[in-house]
Amino acid sequence: xxxxxxxxxxxxxxxxxxxxxxxxxxxxxxxxxxxxxxxxxxxxxxxxxxxxxxxxxxxxxxxxxxxxxxxxxxxxxxxxxxxxxxxxxxxxxxxxxxxxxxxxxxxxxxxxxxxxxxxxxxxxxxxxxxxxxxxxxxxxxxxxxxxxxxxxxxxxxxxxxxxxxxxxxxxxxxxxxxxxxxxxxxxxxxxxxxxxxxxxxxxxxxxxxxxxxxxxxxxxxxxxxxxxxxxxxxxxxxxxxxxxxxxxxxxxxxxxxxxxxxxxxxxxxxxxxxxxxxxxxxxxxxxxxxxxxxxxxxxxxxxxxxxxxxxxxxxxxxxxxxxxxxxxxxxxxxxxxxxxxxxxxxx
Length: 347
Fold this sequence. Notes:
Elements: H1 10-17, H2 23-43, H3 46-51, H4 57-64, H5 68-80, E1 84-87, E2 90-93, H6 95-100, H7 110-123, H8 127-133, H9 145-159, H10 163-169, E3 178-182, H11 188-196, E4 201-206, H12 208-219, E5 227-231, E6 244-250, H13 258-271, E7 272-283, H14 294-306, H15 314-321, E8 327-328, E9 332-333, E10 340-346
Parallel strand pairs: 3-4, 3-6, 4-5, 6-7
Antiparallel strand pairs: 1-2, 7-10, 8-10, 9-10
């Protein structure tokens, strides 16, 4: 996926073609304002207010406790990027907003946006320090109760658009019954896999703080004893041998060093039954010999800033599989999230 600016008319098309438009000005001045406007709009309840019938700048401001002029300016930005429509002095929600932003939608990413607004946005101020030192923030080590709560709800929002596709595409062995979901917190991938395969059960292995805050999210799914939490740490715990048909490590490998990921692969290989699969589900760093891709490159930088390492290439992940006795399979891409893959190794 790439980010592009599209002209609204012929003159703008010519200006873009002739390099007359200062694109760095758009990136440095306009895009940050757009990002922050979207995050604040979601966090402040702007879209819920409009859904409830507060459709003018004045009534939205009153409903949300905001300044009328400032609210009008915010609504203008949100309209320009297609989150809202404006006609005859009133605002309405677009199809995109109804599907992805409203809290009532089953596919909402609202909680992820709120987390990014309250927690992640201040982290970006450390980008310069990271570029000078190469040391990430290691945010899991500093989370308190409310931050864990926001984080777990945000991870749910991040997974909701891919979990069903994961379950549809994962090459599960025939007759599989046991799944281990390492660092799976909310368990949405496990839930969707178990819904698709009635004979499958899953255990979610995660840190104490994650389990505490994610347990209510899992309970809402009504999976009973088929999907359960287990407190633990894959870096220090041992796994039972020859037990699982599927082991999933989703959005966790970017928190680990290469050596730690190699050790995890060895543990998982021993825990798999013959024919079982290990799936590392991640945004993928583009191959160094290929053209950079927006999602993979930006998440690589973000995870480097906020965690341990950043993204990994498919070749690097397969390099953990082979010494562990796993055979790499063809990577599986997501249609819903470009730049994200299931990288699969089979025992």
